[in-house]
Amino acid sequence: MTNIIEIWLENRRDGMTIGIGEAEPRISFVADAVASAFDAEFTADDGTVQVERILSTQNVPWPFAPLAAREGGGLRIRAVDSGVWSEPLRIEAGIADDWRVDFVSPSVVAGRDAPRPAYLLRAVVAEGALPEGIVRARIHSTAHGVYELEVNGERIGDDVLAPGWTSYSHRIRYQTHDVTAALRGGENVVGAWLADGWYRGHIGFDGGVWDIYGSDVALLAQLEVTTTDGMIHHVPLAWTTAPSPIIEVGLYEGESFDARLEQDGWSAPGFDASRWTPAAILPRADFPAAIEPPTALPVQATETLRPASVTRQPSGRIRLDFGQNISGVLRIRLRADAGHTVTLHHAEVIENGELGIRPLRAATSVDTYTAAGTGEEIYRPRFTIHGFQYAELENWPGELRDGDVEAVVIHTGMRRTAWFESSNEGLDKLHSNVVWSMRDNFVDLPTDCPQRDERVGWTGDIQVFAPTALRLFAAHGTLTGWLRDLAFEQADQGHVPNFVPWVECGFPNFPTAAWGDAAVIVPWEMYRNDGDLRILADQFASMRAWVDLVDDLTGHTGLWNTGFQLGDWLDPTAPPEDPGKSHTDKYLVATAYHVRTARIVADSAALLGEDADAARYRAIADRAARAFQDEFLSDSGRVVSDTPTSIAVALVFELFENEDQVLRAGARLQELVGAGGFHISTGFVGTPIICDALVRAGSMDYAYHLLLQDELPSWLYPVSMGATTIWERWDSMLPDGSINPGDMTSFNHYALGAVADFLHRAVAGLAADAPGWERIRFEPRPGGGLERASARYDSVRGTASISWQREGERLSIELEVPAASTGILVLPGSAEQIPVGPGRHSFATTVRSVDDDPDRPFFGWRRPEPVLENEGAA
Ligand code: BGC
Fold it and tell me: Does 599 score more than 80 pLDDT?
């Protein structure tokens, strides 16, 4: 019996199927067994049923009539040889730009440069204005600013900081909310909270900017109801506005809420709104930005944490340690007299016994709550977000009871897809820290950090982190949307700016290697992960434009040796105040990336059937490779700069001319890494690939040594210092507990955590061997004193997993191959590829420890004798 395990649309495995933009969304699913064919059934809301035979499981073109705007229904799938239908998946098209309303605004002129208030908006649907026989009701809405909806006194939806941040001058996303259950007989009321957010608030660093997208904040909300006869009725909404109890709010600054200003029942029927004023109407046509459906789930509250410790400070403040660095806010519950104000301070670390707030720079991250004095009051800030592990409550009334304060974790709703575990606690904690830094930094877009006055979509950070991001969570939808913005900003700026959306706040606005290369590498990694060419097709013009630009910058020589570069950013030899001053030649990095991305564009062109482009970019790549070799390599295989990063890029990006050079460079890399005492000496560019380079050099042992080092600088040094996220700098906190003196120090940056991908691929030994995990390579590499390691990945073809365990010289391995994939197993020390089919398998082999071998002073294994225990057993 074949069961359908999971169905999704358009590579969006997070469950985004309502309010979608595609009239013909492609369907993908996972079945627990192979079948010759499947039936797909779509039962539309009007009762019509379409059944079509489909022959594949991945990105199947929509087999039914295209969805009309707003059309919805249930999609079920079954294998033809089995009678079991899957659970239906609700699918519903968005409104396809059929807007019948205008923006409404409580404030069209931005105030002074300070946190500004939030506003309330209210619209009454008079008794009798709704038709009889409503079967469905939807509000399609978005805002200039950030907003939350209420209907009849109840919060609608679970989005936080909607509509999120896009390149607002080009596109803004709308949300579709189901309000069927919220409507009632008689009068109905729709309400909205609205604040500046990214649109009109303070964003960017070095002082930042205000009002960059407009001087208004405004809401666009369209209420539609469908009646039993299938008719769709547009319900007119006339909006009034009033000040809200949020008297000041900024994403960076925090929120101040005065509960005495709350107007009870303001979004419910029967409320006296006679003192509210009509909202200004701003014609939609005055704003050229496209209003688009989202491609991913919104930002949501995903978890709450109780404090791990609570201590009263000499200052009288109550300090809470949540035991985990997060992005989010506090939720407080208190009883206090009217007018009593509690202040909530946030910080990532403690320094000298105090909250370490210097790294926050201008993001003061302080919320205040002034009580109404009405008994038990509960408050959670709406329109701000902080990066913190510690909080201090100032002026808390009385004792703190259990449950009075919780930390609410807030980030994009994403499905977790990968897990790693080993017998080494340090590695496991490192992995957990990467997972958390990804959660904390996927706040609608992939950001650099969640705490200071930055939180922007730095291209270089996600460029290096993309393989890890795509492994850990189903991030395809988020990255698809962000890449659309990247292409818009690229067109505006004439190059890929260093962060997207771009904010002109003084940072050098020049094309920069490894950062701009995100335009090419991020879609490529998405393709490799999911096996779907669509993202390459969608981004192809952007990918090409980037490589063309760099080719121009090199004067068509292929050698990129001019202009601003960030280089191997933050290698540990760079001084705190000059993080770009790495010991690796910046132009070596730039030229290496040029080769890499020109090759990817050539490969993408070939996959897309663009043969002329394939030849053109292959020629650009070959020229750049020659230029790299002429400028940076010696015939014998030495590399200019002679640093681990320079050798690693040459090895991993395959820039050598012959295997002799590779051998020589590999040996030199080992020499350098060993001479460095297995301390990290790489930055953003070298760190994600240094272990792969060591494997290419033939030494997994060295990779283990580097991975397991815990002295500064190393991956495990922060772990030894109690880190719960990945730090921006190797030494964000110095061994004496003081914060790095540089003015750019975060404790929550995912870039240096890009090594998590290596833990899955090489330590556990679970890697894709073909795009979309159609073929899987299982290659356990026991070493480093590990007794066991395991990894699991819920790929687009189903779950793949590996688990190995070492007892003395015996190595046992358990594998799982999804029904729709094939696999090969490569045993330690052997080049033989043992085919493994779908199902679970166990193997055993012997490995000899060489820990004490004087010629090979590092732990590891050699010469295995594979013993197949039960080949092919499912
Ligand atoms: C960001 C980085 C970014 C870098 C480049 C920093 O301020 O936080 O992660 O990539 O600047 O300049």
Answer: yes
pLDDT at 351 over 60: yes
Reported as a single tens digit per residue, the pLDDT across 231-248 is: 999 999 999 999 999 999
Report the nearest atom of ligand 1 relative to the CA of 746. Answer: 8
Terminal Cα-to-Cα distance of the chain (whole angstroms):
14
863 has a pLDDT exceeding 50: no
577 vs 570: CA distance, rounded Å: 10
Same domain, yes or no, for 777 and 767? no
User: Measured from the CB, is residue 453 less than 6 Å from ligand 1?
Assistant: no
527 C-beta closer than 6 A to ligand 1: no
Q: Are 686 and 651 in contact (CB under 8 A)?
A: no
Give the residue numbers spanning the domain of 829: 773-852
Tell which of 69, 93, 117 closes a domain: 93
CATH number at residue 577: 1.50.10.10
Which of 382, 412, 442 corresponds to the end of one domain? 412
Distance 197 CA to ligand 1 centre (A): 22
Instruction: Print the SS3 string covering 599-644.
Output: HHHHHHHHHCCCHHHHHHHHHHHHHHHHHHHHHHECCCCCECCCCH
The yes-or-no verdict on residue 871 having pLDDT over 70 is no
How many Å lie between the centroid of ligand 1 and the Cα of residue 375? Answer: 46
Taking CA atoms only, the protein residue closest to ligand 1 atom 8 is 448
Instruction: From the CA of 579, give the closest atom in ligand 1.
Output: 12
Residue 867 is predicted with a pLDDT of: 54
Tell me, using a 6 A CB cutoff, whether residue 517 lines ligand 1.
no
Q: Is the peptide bond before 713 cis (omega within 30 degrees of 0)?
A: yes
Average pLDDT score over residue span 811-816 = 97
Q: How far is CA 629 from CA 155, 586, 599, 647, 671, in A?
A: 61, 15, 16, 12, 22
Residue 865's pLDDT band (cuts 50, 70, 90)? very low
Q: Residue 874 has what pLDDT?
A: 37
Residue 684 CA, closest ligand 1 atom number: 10
Length of the chain: 874
Q: Is the pLDDT of residue 752 over 50?
A: yes
Supply the angle between the helices 700-708 and 659-675 in degrees, to the nearest 10.
Answer: 30
User: Residue 866 falls within a domain, yes or no?
Assistant: no
- Ligand 1 site, residue 744, Cβ cutoff 6 A: yes
Averaged confidence pLDDT in the chain: 95
Rounded-to-integer distance, Cα 733 and Cα 724, Å: 13
Residues of the chain above pLDDT 90, percent:
93
Q: What pTM did the predictor assign? A: 0.96
pLDDT of residue 852: 38
564 C-alpha to ligand 1 centroid (Å):
14
Q: Confirm or reject: Cβ of 194 under 6 Å from ligand 1.
A: no
CB 461 near ligand 1, within 6 Å: yes
Q: Which residues are catalytic?
A: 454, 728
Name the one residue in this structure whose structure tokens are 């700098």.
729
Count Cα neighbours of 11 within 13 Å in the Cβ-side half-sphere.
21
The reply to whether ligand 1 has any atom less than 6 angstroms from the CB of 792 is no
Whether residues 192 and 323 share a domain: the answer is: no
**Which residue minimizes the CA distance to atom 12 of ligand 1?**
566
Rounded distance from Cα 458 to ligand 1 centre (Å): 6
Give the residue whose CA is nearest to atom 7 of ligand 1.
744
Residue 133, domain CATH: 2.60.120.260
Atom of ligand 1 nearest to the CA of 461: 10
Q: Of ligand 1's atoms, which has the minimum distance to the CA of residue 460?
A: 10
| Protein residue with its CA nearest to atom 4 in ligand 1 | 458
Average pLDDT over residues 301-305: 98
* Alpha carbon 333 to its chain's center: 31
398 in the same domain as 468: no
Tell whether 39 and 123 lie within a shared domain.
no
d(CA 450, CA 384): 11
Indicate whether 628 and 492 sit together in one domain.
yes
Same domain, 800 and 695: no
